[in-house]
Structures are given as C-alpha cells and as structure tokens.
Write a structure and sequence with these properties.
Layout: E1 3-5, E2 8-11, E3 23-27, H1 34-41, E4 53-54, E5 57-58, H2 63-69, E6 70-73, H3 85-93, H4 102-108, H5 124-136, E7 142-146, H6 154-169, E8 173-177, H7 181-187, E9 190-195, E10 198-203, H8 205-210, H9 219-227
Parallel strand pairs: 3-8, 3-9, 6-7, 7-8
Antiparallel strand pairs: 1-2, 4-5, 9-10
The chain binds adenosine-5'-triphosphate.
Adenosine-5'-triphosphate binds at residues 5, 8, 10, 28, 30-36.
C-alpha cells in the first residue's frame, strides 16, 4: 500500500501479512509511517494504492463491516476528557450492532473500582486499560494498539502486557506500534520494521537479532542497525 500527503510520501510501499492470533509490532523512527500504515489497515484513511484485507473484509470497499470487527485503542486523546469510565463504556457500546457483556470486560481489566472516575483523572495505566476496554466492546478479532505502553511506569507496562498476552491466548490478533524494543523482544511474535515509508524487514525478533554481526545483540541493536539506518555507513 501507498499513501502520500501532498508532497510527503508517508507510506511508499508496504506489503505485509499479519497472522491470526499473533502479537505483531510495527517499529520505526518518528515519522517512518507506522501510524499511517495502521490507519489504512483500520480503514480510517484511504490508501492511494493497494489492497487491504482484514479478517476477510476488504478495508477499502467495506469500511462499515470492518468497523464492527476491529478494536482500536489509539494513543491517549482528549476524546473522552469530560466523561467517566462507565459513561465512556456506555457511549462506545452504542456505536456497535453487537457488544460483549460489558461487566465481563470490566472484570477482565479490573476496572470496577474506577467506573465512577473521570477518564482524564486516571493514571496513564488505567487510562490505557480504559482504552483497551473500549476496544474490546465489540468482541473484535483483531485489536490495534497505537503505542500502548508509552509513558507508563514499569509496573503498569508489565500489567498491560499481561492483558495483551491474555488476549492473544483467547485467540485475538494484536497489531501495535511501539518504540520500546525490549517489549518487542520479550512479548511480540513478529515485527515489521518501517523506514521512510518502506518495509525494510519483517520477522520474529529472534531471527532479526540473528542477523546482527554481534552474538549478544538485542532488538535495540536491530533498531539501530536496521530501523534507524545506522551502522552501514549511512
Ligand atoms: N494528516 C497528515 N497530513 C500531512 N502529513 C502527515 C499526516 N499524517 C502523517 N503525515 C506525515 O507522514 C509521515 C509519516 O507519519 P506517521 O505518523 O505515519 O509516522 P509514525 O511512524 O507513526 O511516527 P511516530 O512514531 O512519530 O508516531 C510523517 O512525515 C508525517 O509528518
């Protein structure tokens, strides 16, 4: 797929396949094209070229059908600034034809003690859990998370990853973007490295690390060598 904004070629050519039931990460520098790629897959923006199929649905031709099947937790926004957790759940549930039992989601994410709190006043970790709860309302097959752990403390990150792993164990597919390479290495099944709008590598963290000349490499080294384009005299 391809997408340009006026003169900026945000996505110059990315072709990828995400498997059912995996945690798949999009990584790359700021401005590499991760969000644009996710937004095209989610049917939020129209690609200039290319075809996108999500869970058997053509994202370009059936955006309404797609919306019913995917869950989206975007970066913390001011969208629900003046709303309580329980109100946000009710509002978002009204967007869907069919929803899961909301109480079940509340229990799963431990949100019960926070239902009467304003979303804005919650800590970052609880705001992210609220976003995730909203993303789960329509019982989606695939869940999109844009930098889910950015700005969270280590405990909140750990807990959020436990929830994400649990979703995978339930058979959900997770597509996320992140700048935290240790999280990719520890938790993600595969990742796509995007550089300047192009897909430069796509594999398991383990296989990407094996490409490094150094035996004790990590995903941080992969990032520096491949995503940031350093280490090759560039
Ligand atoms: N709505 C828009 N209008 C104009 N240019 C845009 C728009 N959205 C993104 N861009 C540009 O497209 C390029 C890719 O942006 P994108 O947000 O997809 O990158 P990213 O990899 O998600 O970055 P980050 O890690 O900072 O979130 C950037 O040069 C950005 O400035």
């Amino acid at each position: 797929m391809k997408k340009s904004y006026q003169k900026i070629q945000a996505v110059r050519g990315i072709s990828l396949q995400v498997h059912e039931g995996e945690i798949f990460a999009l990584i790359g520098a700021n401005g590499a094209g991760k969000t644009t790629t996710m937004e095209m897959i989610m049917g939020l923006i129209e690609p200039d070229e290319g075809t996108i199929h999500v869970c058997g649905v053509d994202a370009r031709k059936q955006p309404a059908e797609l919306k019913q099947r995917i869950g989206v937790a975007l970066q913390r926004t001011s969208l629900y600034d003046k709303i309580k957790v329980k109100e946000a759940l009710k509002l978002f549930a009204s967007y869907y034809e069919r929803t899961r039992d909301v109480n079940e989601i509340i229990e799963e994410l431990g949100l019960r003690p926070h239902l009467n709190q304003m979303v804005k006043k919650l800590s970052g970790g609880w705001q992210q859990r609220t976003s995730l709860a909203l993303a789960l309302l329509n019982d989606p097959q695939i869940i999109f998370l844009d930098e889910p752990t950015t700005g969270l403390d280590p405990q909140a990150r750990f807990e959020l990853w436990n929830i994400i792993k649990r979703l995978r164990a339930e058979g959900k597919t997770i597509l996320l973007s992140t700048h935290y390479m240790e999280e990719v290495q520890r938790y993600c099944d595969r990742c796509a490295i995007i550089r300047e709008g192009l897909l430069v590598a796509c594999d398991t963290p383990e296989n990407l690390i094996k490409l490094l000349p150094d035996d004790n490499g990590s995903m941080d080294d992969v990032y520096v060598q491949i995503a940031a384009g350093r280490g090759n005299g560039e």
